[in-house]
Amino acid sequence: MVEEKATATSEVGAKVLVKPLPHILNELAGQIRAAEEAAERANASARLAEQAAANAIAAVEEARQIGERIAQEARREAQEALSKAEEALVRAVVKRLARWDWIATLIVINLAIIFCAVLIAFALAKAL
């Protein structure tokens, strides 16, 4: 078995020495060109990825600004709606209070309070 390993090693060495040097150099030059082309493609892909990332960042920033603008507009519209609702409520309350039946009710209540006060005063005067 030791002899077989020695022949295998000498066979491998023999295979390397069998190719002519210009052929080996041509293969190396082809591999170098392929590596350079792969590097160029990788660089081009990296530039495209960088540009895509920059575009994505710009789109996110634009979307954020639009979202903030829409939120401010919604807040402003909500405040306007609340203001209009408050105004309508005040008008409705004033309208109800201005009606004669409310005024008549308030007059009756005031007269009842005065009548009770007079009765209490007479009762206290008789008690003293």
Describe the protein's architecture and organization.
With 128 residues, the protein is an all-alpha fold. The protein has one domain. It contains 3 helices and no strands. The chain has helices at 2-18, 21-98, 100-127.
SSE layout and pairing:
Elements: H1 2-18, H2 21-98, H3 100-127
List keywords for this structure.
rod-shaped, single chain, 3 helices, 128 residues
Structural class: mainly alpha
**Terminal-residue CA separation:** 143 Å
* Poorly predicted runs of 5 or more residues: 1-9
Radius of gyration, CA atoms, in whole angstroms = 50 Å
- Apparent shape: rod-shaped
User: Main beta sheet: strand number and arrangement?
Assistant: none
How would you state the average pLDDT, rounded? 85
> What count of helical segments does DSSP give?
3
Q: Any idea how many domains?
A: 1
Helix content: over 70%
- Strand runs, count: 0
Q: What is the string of helix and strand elements?
A: HHH
Strand content: under 5%
Q: Care to give the gist of this entry?
A:
With 128 residues, the protein is an all-alpha fold. The protein has helices at residues 2-18, 21-98, 100-127.
